[in-house]
Amino acid sequence: MSVDGTWELTLDTPMGAQKATLTLTSDGDSLSGKMTGGPGGELEIEDGKVDGNDISYKFKITSPMAIEVEVTSTVDGDSISGSAKLGAFGNAKITGNRA
């Protein structure tokens, strides 16, 4: 199953639910894309990796404070779920569907 495409996500953060749109493109085991909406505006993903249906990537939020977010997720058909490490602010559950 391809991870490529646009995903509508909900991140359940300590500050409440955040909606975001994630656009992904894979090339072998490399992953690139961007996240729009959510707490950081438009963010390019970094260090993106694909392993079967599992993906991982990072992005950096600079406002209202600097945080590096580390995401691991699994794609199952048109659904995606996983978690994000929010630096010192704990973890966020991620759920979403292909747009």
Offer a quick outline of the entry:
The protein has 99 residues and is mainly β. Helix content is 0%, strand content 71%.
What does the model show?
The protein has strands at residues 5-13, 16-27, 30-37, 43-44, 46-51, 54-61, 67-76, 79-85, 91-98. The chain is built from no helices and nine strands. The protein is mainly beta. A hairpin with a 2-residue loop joins strand 2 and strand 3 (30-37).
The gross shape turns out to be globular
Number of helices: 0
Helix-strand pattern, N to C?
EEEEEEEEE
Low-pLDDT regions: none
Descriptive labels:
mainly beta; eight-stranded antiparallel beta barrel; 9 strands; 99 residues; globular
List the helices and strands and how they pair.
Blueprint: E1 5-13, E2 16-27, E3 30-37, E4 43-44, E5 46-51, E6 54-61, E7 67-76, E8 79-85, E9 91-98
Antiparallel strand pairs: 1-2, 1-9, 2-3, 3-4, 3-5, 5-6, 6-7, 7-8, 8-9
